[in-house]
Amino acid sequence: MARFLHRPEDFRVLHAPYSALLEEYYGRTGPNTLRALPYPQTLEEWTHQREVLRRRLIAALGLEQELVDAPADARGDLHARTTGTIDRSRDGYRVELIEFQSQPRFHVSAAMYLPADVPAGTRLPAVFSPHGHWRTGKHTRHIQIRSVNLARRGYAVLVVDTIGHAERTFMGHREPAAHALFYTGASLPGLQVWDNVRALDYLASRPEVDSARIGVTGASGGGNHTMYLAAIDARVAAAIPVCSVEMLEVYFRKSQCVCETVPDLLTFADKPHLLGLIAPRPLLIMNGMRDPGFNTLSARRAFDHTHRIYQLYDGGAERLARYETNVEHSYDRAMRERAYAWLDRWLKRLDPDEAAARSREADTWVEAEEDDTLRVWGPYGAGSVPEDAHTLGRYYAALAGAGMGAGEGEARGEGEWASGREGAGAKVQELGITDIWRPAAGSAGPRSLGPTLRRRIVDEAFGGWPERTPVRAEPVETIERSDCAIELLAYWSEDGVPVPALLFRPRSSPAKRLPAVVYTSPAGKGRTPELRSIHEVVRAGAIVLAIDYRGQGETAGSGGTEGELPAVERGIMLHRPLFGGRVWDVLRGVDYLATRPDVDPAAVSVWGEGGAALLALHAAALDERVAGAACLGLPASYRARAGGSVNLEPWVVVPNLLALADVPDLAALVAPRPLVTGTTAEAAEMVPRLVSR
After folding, report:
1. Judging by DSSP bridges, how do beta strands 106-115 and 93-103 pair with one another?
2. Rounded CA gap, 283 and 474, in Å?
3. Closest by alpha carbon to 400, among 663, 163, 685?
4. Is the peptide bond before 510 cis (omega within 30 degrees of 0)?
5. How far is 552 from 651, CA to CA, in rounded Å?
6. Sign of torsion, CA 48 49 54 60?
7. Rounded CA gap, 124 and 451, in Å?
8. 3-class SS at 250?
9. pLDDT tens, position by position, 122-138
10. pLDDT at position 508
11. Between 642 and 327, residue with greater pLDDT
12. Angle at 273 (CA atoms; ends 271, 279), nearest 5 degrees
């Protein structure tokens, strides 16, 4: 076996690994975008801005404004039922175990706390109490304590298990399907908000509840639930987000969850804008001064901006308040008592001093229920989780449809075409797009509709391309081998984004310019000097540029694909998905090759393996300068597999892409240029045929 004289570290391009590239890139882009967002100076200005903001927020969540604004009875039957009861009359309250469907097959488990005795005809003020990232959901001790105390004070209280928590753990939460939802225009935060809208529908349907007096409060993620629900649903008469309010630029210095990732949000709103949508309804913001996750100074800035919006309304400033206490991330007794006073003041119409005087919690011990006791589908409830209940994977499959099989086609909307794929997922040995992907008979073809679809994908899904400036490249050194020369270099994809690369060229090349190919793989460029397939392409007389796209190889952060999730989610919120940036890195590699005197600029192709096969496909589909594409290991579709399984990594997610195109449509955009698909093992045979055409 041949032994190379160079070690892998000899092929490093950068002086030191740039592991902070993605963090710094979004750390610049995000805060700069947020700081440019306008705040209103007059009520007239805010009235117009408010209408636009609310409409954009509802759309970003993936909800339909017509449904959000419709009467509750127009949103469908909740199929609500009580599965069990817990009688704690001697302690002043009782609990009903509730199940309802926020949408078909979307089962919600909930607990309803009520005063022990509610006289006939009484209409109680109510509180909806969403929880945060506590796996125990509605069973969580501090939520039980708050709910019991509110019930003793004369409130009806509803607590639901958020998607993926407690009895709804079976649905999933942080998993591929949660990210895949973005392809369809849906989102996990949107599904949660819709659950909460329907929870208000349920509260309002109860005969003992006064639907004009409903408050909402929750901590951490529950504080976000409170903010979003109150922002879009005017039935919320008073809101208290706890340990959740801050300026969104803080999200670029910490991790977040997919359930906090609202597509495009940072392009039109910061948290004060969202809180301003609640104005002039009463809003109390509470934070812990020692909370490591939600910075107090940032919370104060958010409050100040929100205060300016509230001041635009007559008496608005009176309806906004802030409370800080010397605790960490919690909803402790001092916070609860402040919340009771706020709710009593605005929902019971008590004088502020009287409300404050009545706010002290009773010293009676609140014994938390055991886990089984509060189960809707369990020992104290009736039955088990319904067999037809959606998981996130099944829900995604229902939205997106199943993956395309052999010979299947699917109709598209205006500006697109019906496309079919023959033998989806099968090995393809023939070169030439017309032998692989065909438009459906009688439909418009890719030549007439391609430019429109390309433009829409770039603008609507990727958020546009950066400015295409002349490529800046820096050579590092050249390593001579018996069969080729390997140039170590870096080129700049955009400002602050270096792309380390290895360029392989034949040692003895003719005077004519050579074809070239940009190579990408999730494994990075580091292993390419020993890949037989790379050397086969070079021996076929072509140049290969192997790159580390952003956040990979020499610019990879820690934690692998899991560690790059913050970049994935920040990119989605900025309308600059990480996948789109990586496609741009490939296209800038094409730009660089086209400037070289030894490359034929009309014969530059792209080659992607594994997850990077999608990068190569998008690069060729969206840029007609690309001469052809080899996409090895290409998935047949973005749609779910049978049973709702999703096998797509989060970094390949592009929000709303399925509204425009699936994998077969992107392949059709390559026509009539050659497109090679197959397995990675076939690269040595197939790619040389691509570049030698």
Report:
1. antiparallel
2. 55
3. 663
4. no
5. 11
6. positive
7. 59
8. helix
9. 899 999 999 998 888 99
10. 75
11. 327
12. 115
Q: Concatenated DSSP letters for 486-505? A: EEEEEEEEETTEEEEEEEEE
d(Cα 392, Cα 377) in Å, to the nearest integer?
19
Which residues, at least 6 apart from 362, have a Cβ–Cβ distance to it below 8 Å? 149, 152
Mean pLDDT of 210-228: 96
Tokens standing for residue 687:
């790619």
E strands, 537-628, are: 543-547, 599-609
Residue with more model confidence, 365 or 202: 202
Q: Long-range contacts made by residues 560-567, C-beta under 8 angstroms, separation at least 24? A: 561/649, 561/650, 561/651, 564/22, 564/651, 565/255, 565/258, 565/650, 566/22, 566/23, 566/26, 566/255, 566/256, 567/22, 567/23, 567/25, 567/26
pLDDT of 577 > 80? The answer is: yes
Place of tokens 């109709």: 411
Q: Measured between alpha carbons, how far is 251 from 247 in angstroms, rounded to an integer?
A: 8
Smallest Cα–Cα separation from 156: which of 236, 95, 219? 95
Helices (H), 406-531: 446-456
Q: What span, in angstroms and rounded, lies between the C-alpha atoms of 6 and 468?
A: 36
Query: How many whole angstroms separate alpha carbon 46 and alpha carbon 224?
Result: 22
Higher pLDDT: 411 or 141? It is 141
Query: What is the distance between the alpha carbons of residues 340 and 155, in angstroms, rounded to a whole number?
Result: 10
* pLDDT tens per residue, range 475-493: 999 998 888 899 999 999 9
Residues in the chain: 693
Task: Look at residue 616 and tell me whether its pLDDT is greater than 60.
Answer: yes
At 620, the amino acid letter reads A
Instruction: Round to whole Å and give the CA distance between 603 and 623.
Output: 13
pLDDT in tens, 6-60: 566 678 999 999 999 999 999 999 999 999 999 999 999 999 999 999 999 999 9
What is the longest distance spanned by two Cα atoms in the chain?
A: 96
Based on the number of CB atoms within 10 Å of its own CB, is 79 exposed (0-12), middle (13-18) or buried (19 or more)? exposed
Q: Provide the pLDDT for residue 416.
A: 27
